[in-house]
Amino acid sequence: MKKGALFIAMALCLMVATGCAAPKPYVSDPESSHALNVLRAAGARYIKDVKAEDFEKQKVEGVKRGGPAIPAMITLLGGGFLPALSYWSVHDDAPEATSFVFAWMPEDMAENGKEANDKLRRIVAKAFARALTGENAVELPSWFEVGEIEEYFVEITGKGCDGPKIGCQYSISTRKKPGKKGFSPDFLGGSPAWIFTFEDKNAPLLYFYSNKRDFPTISPDYQVYLEASKYLPEWVFLYLAPGKHGYVSVRTENDFEMLNYPVVFNQGESYFFVKPD
Predict the structure, then answer these.
(1) Is 218 contained in some domain?
(2) 1 in a domain, yes or no?
């Protein structure tokens, strides 16, 4: 990475459960949003749903960058306005204050927790490479190892990464502690799985860097996450914490603004923390 490179993304943390696995699958609460049920299944305790009218009180603005289709719901939930943050304020130490990748990998996909960790890391890396370049193949050369930490580094070229203000690089920094056996939640069938959730302290990190952008955003684009989720299996979820991520302004089609509400991405769909009707 070139000297002076700017982070354009905060870490997405992939949590691998180290505590005791749940004795039975998580059962969804019908009075909660799908987004909230996903996070609760992953061990979150503090984030909450809000009423639809509270969303609608916020200034409306969509997101734009080409490629991924923008879901209709986003027109109700535009960011860039700090009052939205008050609805989801959590302590900095709470897991929901950080963005994560979490998953319930079918148990038969790996013989042990280490293999599950390795496979998941590569699945996520390839999804982001495809989102950024349109190519599925990506090499993950080992950059360095320090104790339990193993770092992989990839530079992306082509597609959106060659724009006038964009240069894409990312790394995956992972603690090599293996995953734990457990069960997927009911919305994934309640089957035996290797679990990667909030409840662990084992946190592989996914970083994006830029050496071209001249604005001080600290996070990756909303659109990149949405696009990457299209190439992930149904058992992998991306969670974006409020106030940590940028999106392209539809007013200028260039400037970045902060996404001030949390969102869960899964297979090209966006899920918001809005109470069901």
Answers:
(1) yes
(2) no
3-state helix, strand, coil in the chain (%, to 5): 25, 30, 50
Residue 215 within a domain: yes
CA distance 106 to 244: 30
Q: Going by C-beta distance under 8 Å and a sequence separation of 6 or more, which residues neighbour residue 153?
A: 1, 141, 143, 169, 170, 171
Question: What pLDDT shows up at residue 75?
Answer: 34
Residue count (the chain): 277
Give pTM, 2 decimals.
0.73
pLDDT digits (tens, 9 = 90+) for 145-201: 666 666 666 666 665 556 555 556 666 666 666 778 999 999 999 999 998 887 655
Residue 249 CB partners (closer than 8 Å, separation 6+): 61, 64, 80, 255, 256, 257
Which residues are bridge partners to 156 per DSSP? 168
Q: Give the domain extent around 111.
A: 6-272
